[in-house]
């Protein structure tokens, strides 16, 4: 749902989210999201896993990067793609081309940026979502919402005041639901999470913590 808070769980290439483990994690999300609609949860698996996850789970699938063709991603079962994530950086020309390609194929784009200044340079493209992730905090469990609240507030104001449809998100270091709630209070529509969930001893509990915080 467009107005629901958004939780994106990036599988990256973590071994805890590959193969049967990735399917089990997706099915856990299916169970937790049954009859809930105030929060939308998506997963971003490796591209090679999208078709299998589409057949075995209900959780919406987002590609970690677009690759050569948006249409082929859609055929695999993805509803959209992350773009310019720190793991898969793009040139400006590639960002422009891929946002437009996804839109032509009625797919969503989650454009990652490092700073509010970079975000400003892409606002006119109107990606579906724009996520700010300071690279120095990625994977640290030191949440940007606590470490750099002024950065998050500035980014939120920039995107929300643009007057278009792009939704502001943040990632980098998100450790728990408290961090996600802090991000929302600073103006975010949702959060991107990887390590805190995928590598948790009890992923189900951690996912539920984030969902409750975003409701």
Count of distinct structural domains = 1
What structural class results from the helix and strand content? alpha/beta
What's the number of helices? 10
Which stretches are poorly predicted, pLDDT < 50 over at least 5 residues?
none
CATH superfamily: Aldolase class I
Describe the structure.
The protein has a single domain (5-214), classed as Aldolase class I (TIM Barrel, Alpha-Beta Barrel). It starts with a strand and ends with a helix. The chain has an 8-stranded parallel β-sheet. 42% of the residues lie in helices and 17% in strands. It is built from 10 helices and 8 strands.
Describe the structure concisely for a colleague.
The protein is an alpha/beta fold and about 220 residues long.
Q: How do the strands and helices of this protein lay out in sequence?
A:
Blueprint lengths: L4 E6 L8 H15 L5 E6 L5 H7 L5 E2 L6 H7 L3 E4 L8 H13 L3 E6 L2 H7 L6 E4 L11 H4 L1 H12 L6 E4 L6 H9 L4 E4 L1 H4 L4 H12 L1
Parallel strand pairs: 1-2, 1-8, 3-4, 4-5, 5-6, 6-7, 7-8
Helix pairs in contact: 1-10, 8-10
Keywords:
215 residues, alpha/beta, TIM Barrel, 8-stranded parallel beta sheet
